[in-house]
Automatic annotation (TrEMBL):
Cofactor note (record): Binds 2 zinc ions per subunit.
Domain Helicase C-terminal: 470-624
This protein's name: Replication restart protein PriA
Lineage, opening ranks: Bacteria, Bacillati, Bacillota, Clostridia, Eubacteriales
Organism whose genome encodes this protein: Desulforamulus putei DSM 12395
Classification via SUPFAM superfamilies: P-loop containing nucleoside triphosphate hydrolases
Length: 731
């Protein structure tokens, strides 16, 4: 009789696994890392086979029900990483393996889907088709041969039926996915490197040849050519017959980078992102595992790509919060990358114009990272000139518009000169607060302790749970009729822009306008190709855009992120301002940036104006040192949620008592235990939220205390969810 050890994908103790009997019918199918279905506590759950051994107690043994996947794209290298993640993030092994493997693939019919290209005798599209969508799809296929059906439809912003029609007409043909761009450009076609780029490439090539684990922080101003440095490092990696993983914050927001990688490496590039179908994801992982795809490009979870011979990991915009997963297991892709590099003797490149405070601290002399700096833009282009507008003075002068006089004048000049502008506001909607001026009642979500946002369609919407209701004509609390809206969102900016400049073509990019598949690419293409003069958006427009015609960036309000109740607020503000400012002046003309604020003296805004990362770093480090926040300490956030607030509070108090006891037994008494207290948003989706914060100087000791209480708790609180976040990005 054969028995399998299984890590189940349900909340259990950290390293707890369970044994199951292997039925005779499944013996030939089952392997280490196979995904299976097993009975567990009266229900059926998924799990992963991690070995075969006889359990100590054969009396209660149950059978494995079925094999879901024989090959879930896990290997020994990823399993070692999974064990490390259990210790690092205090989560179950089953949860980690589930995260690494992703959703099971039910069918692989589309795994052999070929790419598409325009048939040779139809390369001249003039007058070829009348339907605009078909013509657009053909133009995209001509520019990017080798895209699969879904990729072509997404990039062109059309439906799959349009692509099928073109295939039926014989205007498109099937080719090997990615074909048409397999070859490197000749050396003459590669851009000439600046002196700083050449030095950076030389250092990284030497590190790659040494085949030792190392981490490099590539700190380059916006437009300094970090991407080209990445490409040259990848070329060196491929010459050594090794593979590379490249992470970007969100792949749908970086289409230009995807195109550059495909142009350089062709079908050797595999894309991993959430928009892929199950079959497409299977096909890409199969190409990676077989070594056919040697460059993996994707968002956070691509760090788990099953590469057989890893040599290089690149994390672009390494400061981005999206690299931290907010659901269990709450890992940070940067930390997982360093762990994978240590195992595979790989090089890690962390690139950013505004590195995370912790990263730059580690790159100082004597730290574990090595620092490379790119201080100038390519082609000797100047950094944009940044002006700060004090909105208090604007108000005193009688200007109640959301646009300062300086921004209005700058916009008018760009429109007259047929140049492009970007307006940034990190808040969507028409107004952010709706309040009754008679009784002071704020219109809040009935399920969340958060104010509702007014949208231009007259609906109040909750941006946390999706609740929506018509904006009332009278106050539901006092029947008052003086209901007013306050605050500004991107919809309001769009409306005011059209009033101020009638006839101006405006596009808006935020979570409300990008819900359809391919909408990001469609909006960017329209803006790049002259169908609009002004792009208004949230933080999604601050990343990865390289549009030479943009000469003006206006920040409507720099204060939205600055005064959030979070110790990273100043850092987040500096990063956003610097990144969005970097979208200006990337062509031949010098860019201009106008930052509007009610707090013009804040150091994060002043240093952003000067493009002075080091100045910001030293001031922020002084604040962190005084308050003993990271990188001078380590935090663990323990969040308790449930439908009954009394149960939630009881669980939090039970944990608090045992945390104090564990601290006294295990570690230095200097560790702080803060709370319990209501979370920043005390209720979301009808679930009450309380939290505890552990704060200590040694990461291992803080985790030891939390792990000890986690073991005691087990499944004690069945009505309360307990979530542990090690080194949280936000409190």
């Amino acid at each position: 009789m054969q028995y399998a050890e299984v890590a189940v994908s349900v909340p259990v103790r950290l390293n707890q696994t369970f044994h199951y009997r292997v039925p005779e019918a499944l013996k030939g199918e089952l392997k280490v890392f196979s995904r299976v279905e097993v009975p567990f506590s009266g229900r059926t759950v998924q799990g992963f086979v991690i070995g075969f051994s006889q359990p100590p107690d054969l009396q209660k043994i149950k059978d494995i029900k079925r094999v879901i996947e024989k090959e879930p794209f896990l290997n020994e290298d990823l399993y070692v990483t999974a064990r490390w993640m259990v210790r690092r993030y205090l989560c179950s092994l089953g949860d980690v393996l589930q995260c690494m493997a992703g959703s099971p693939v039910g069918s692989t019919r589309s795994s052999q889907e070929k790419g598409l290209a325009v048939v040779e005798n139809h390369l001249d599209l003039t007058g070829l088709v009348r339907a605009p969508k078909q013509k657009l799809a053909l133009e995209v296929a001509l520019a990017s041969p080798g895209l699969r059906k879904t990729e072509l439809a997404e990039k062109a912003g059309v439906s799959l039926s349009v692509i099928n029609t073109l295939l039926a007409k014989g205007l498109l043909k099937e080719v090997d996915a990615g074909s048409g761009t397999e070859n490197y450009p000749s050396l003459e076609e590669l851009p000439t490197l600046t002196a700083e780029q050449r030095l950076a490439v030389s250092k990284l090539q030497q590190a790659l040849r040494e085949a030792k684990p190392s981490a490099w922080l590539l700190h380059g101003v916006t437009g300094s050519g970090k991407t080209e440095v990445y490409l040259r490092a990848i070329e060196e990696t491929l010459k050594m017959n090794r593979q590379a993983i490249v992470l970007v914050p969100e792949i749908s927001l970086t289409p230009q980078m995807v195109e550059r990688f495909r142009a350089r490496f062709g079908s050797r590039v595999a894309l991993l992102h959430s928009a892929l179908s199950q079959g497409e994801r299977y096909a890409e992982k199969a190409r990676i595992q077989s070594g056919q795809a040697t460059v993996v490009l994707g968002a956070r979870s691509a760090i788990f790509a099953p590469v057989p011979n890893l040599g290089l990991i690149i994390i672009d915009e390494e400061h981005e919060h999206s690299y931290k997963q907010e659901e269990n297991p709450k890992y940070h892709a940067r930390e997982v990358a360093l762990q994978r590099a240590a195992q595979s003797k790989s090089v890690v490149i962390l690139g950013s114009a505004t590195p995370a405070i912790e990263s730059y601290c580690r790159a100082r002399p004597g730290g574990p990272y090595q620092l490379i700096t790119l201080t100038s833009r390519v082609d000797q282009r100047e950094l944009p000139k940044v002006h700060i507008v004090d909105l208090r003075k604007e108000l005193a002068a009688g200007n109640t518009s959301i646009f300062s006089s300086a921004l209005q004048a700058a916009l008018a000049r760009r429109l007259a000169n047929h140049e492009k502008s970007i307006l940034f506001l990190n808040r969507r909607g028409l107004a952010t607060v709706v309040v009754c001026r008679q009784c002071g009642q704020v219109m809040k979500c009935p399920r969340c302790e958060i104010s509702l946002t007014l949208h231009s369609d007259g609906w109040l919407k909750c941006h946390y749970c999706g609740y929506g209701a018509r904006a009332p004509g009278v106050c539901p609390h006092c029947a008052g009729k003086t209901i007013r809206s306050f605050g500004v969102g991107t919809q309001r900016v769009e409306e005011e822009m059209k009033k101020l400049f009638p006839g101006c073509r405006v596009l808006r990019m935020d979570a409300d306008t990008t819900t359809r598949k391919g909408s990001h690419q469609k909006l960017l293409d329209e803006f790049m190709h002259g169908e609009a003069q002004v792009l208004i958006g949230t933080q999604m427009i601050a990343k990865g855009l390289d549009i030479p015609q943009v000469t003006l960036v206006g920040v409507i309000s720099a204060d939205i992120t600055l005064h959030m109740p979070d110790f990273r607020a100043a850092e987040r503000t500096f990063q956003l301002l610097t990144q969005v400012a970097g979208r200006a002046g990337r062509g031949e003309k010098t860019g201009e940036v106008i930052i509007q604020t009610y707090d013009p003296g804040h150091f994060s805004i002043i240093t952003a104006q000067r493009h002075d990362y080091l100045g910001f770093y030293h001031k922020e480090m002084a604040v962190r040192r005084a308050l003993q926040y990271p990188p001078f300490s380590h935090l663990i956030r323990i969040l308790f949620t449930g439908l009954n607030e009394g149960d939630v509070i009881s669980a939090a108090q039970w944990w608090q008592e045992r945390l104090y006891s564990a601290r006294e037994e295990l570690v230095d008494q200097s560790m702080e235990i803060l709370g319990p207290a209501p979370a920043g948003i005390p209720r979301i989706k009808d679930r009450y939220r309380w939290q505890l914060i552990l704060k200590g100087f040694v990461s291992r000791e803080v985790r030891k205390v939390a792990a000890a209480v986690l073991e005691q708790a087990g499944t004690r609180f069945k009505q309360v969810s307990v979530s542990i976040d090690v080194d949280p990005m936000s409190l």
